[in-house]
Design a protein that fits this description.
single chain, alpha+beta, four-stranded antiparallel sheet, 15% strand, elongated
């Protein structure tokens, strides 16, 4: 919510500012589209820990601001390296407390009906997509979807079904082969 409101303030009503925001910004700010009624109880039921965390975050922002003002390149590099190492520890095959998923990557062309071809083939094979994520897209060329399945066997079968339908699909360990 604050990130979106800050962007709105900085844009001063210039819609170009928000149009330049990439998909990561939209993903990171999805809670801003939720109604306040949904978050009211969460905020007030967790007031103490939330205030502590906001204080810690504000201190980290001030520390970052100071490093930039001081042009402390070494401290900034160390902070980036620490963040990189921490992010690398986030499990890739889970969604929070949910069970790990077996991933399939699918490359498709940027044209109408491409996603429908994928979902129809999997539906006809009675395969359930547990999670779907658009990883990257290049306008006019295509994109890559990550499909999550409940089991390794379902993911392997999905690859087979999609390949038989003429759709490029691979498991992470296949490296696209």
């Amino acid at each position: 919510m604050l990130l979106v409101n800050t962007a709105a303030e900085l844009s001063k009503g210039d819609e170009t500012f928000l149009q330049l925001a990439a998909g990561g910004f939209r993903d990171m700010t999805r809670i801003a589209s939720s109604p306040f009624d949904l978050w009211r109880d969460v905020l007030f039921a967790n007031e103490g820990p939330l205030l502590d965390t906001l204080g810690h975050f504000a201190a980290n922002l001030q520390r970052l601001r100071n490093r930039i003002i001081e042009e402390d390149e070494q401290a900034l590099a160390e902070a980036f390296e620490q963040a990189r190492r921490t992010r690398a520890r986030i499990p890739r095959d889970t969604k929070g407390f949910l069970h790990p998923l077996a991933d399939v990557y699918v490359r498709i062309e940027d044209r109408p009906g491409a996603l429908y071809r994928i979902t129809r083939a999997l539906y006809e094979a009675d395969l359930n997509i547990q999670d779907i994520e658009l990883l990257k897209v290049r306008e006019g060329t295509g994109g890559t979807f990550r499909l999550g399945f409940a089991t390794e066997a379902d993911a392997d079968r999905a690859c087979e079904v999609l390949r038989q339908a003429g759709i490029e699909a691979f498991r992470p360990d296949d490296h696209g082969n």
